[in-house]
Amino acid sequence: MLRMDIFDSNQSLPDQRELFCDCFPETEGSAMRGLAHYHWKFHQFPDARPSSEFAAWEEHKLVGYYAAIPYPYQVFGKPARAAMVCDVMTHSSMRGKGVFTKLGAYSVDSLTREGLDFSTGYPIRPEVIPGHLKVGWKVAFKLPMYLKPLRSNRILASKGLGFLAPFVNLGCRIFSRLTRGRRGARYQHRTVSITELLKHPDYPDFLARWQSQIPISLSKSPAFMAWRLGAPETSYQAALVEKGQQLVALAITRSCELKEIPALAILDMMMRAGHPGALGPLHRELERIAQQQSREAICGIWSKTWASRYKLLRHGYLPTPFVFQVILRPLASSYGQEFLDERNWHLMWLDSDDL
Q1: Model confidence pTM above 0.70
Q2: Count of domains in the chain?
Q3: In a 10 Å sphere around its CB, with 0-12 CB exposed, 13-18 middle and 19+ buried, how is residue 29 labelled?
Q4: What is the CATH number of the domain that holds 71?
């Protein structure tokens, strides 16, 4: 008989790790398989209760797992806590038997009782979406992935077409020059570590002013950012644009492998109002980082609203077929239809648990 319960890592962590390997075989050889990654993700978040974990048991076998981390948001000027749902798993031998839906209903009820205001999710497997919908989630909008090509060596070599790389790369260089942002004489751009970013004297004011521009946005305090960008065996950098001592724009980056392409991923991008001229220097700095790290593309996920505001097409970022679904569900708080309007949100990879 299927039994739902609060997950106790002190007793059942080996079972959870075994289930993780069954559900995410693509993580083999990565830091995500390690205990350090699990403890960082679910037990080191800077909150009184760093996570909520739930389990589905069939006799003595862990067959389902559902977790949420209490991400801090500002929603129409008020602080809120969002249950960012992640690592949702059903054992391969139990799929299609209603485990996911039953565990989802149990978890949503528990998160509501805990007082979390709403939940967010970024499912990477479309087959789980019907189970979410059955317990009240809504598919709110999409986050397409955009990619700026810089070189083609790796992908062409993998297909036995490496001899074409010099010709394709020439086209990429021409494309890059045509779409490269202006230098912006009033602005300086540079790259710093995450520690340097969080100690920047203007970061608190920059963050407060930026958040006041967005109806619904993640609260990126130094404590949150230090945790979010502190996963084991990861390394991030921040591209900054400044005007004198004032921080006016930034982007958080990490090197990654995107299918067969060595890429520079943009986890977050923010710009202070009144400084549209900072976009050119910011995109130039991102390209400089990518070239320095021998990346062959730059990529990120943006809603259509923010793709337009950040002028992605003008700076050479092309929409790809890869699209992330954003699903939302009110919990302890109620919200109107404007809560599902993507124009009110600023979402990127940083809002999820990815990268």
Answers
A1: yes
A2: 2
A3: exposed
A4: 3.40.630.30
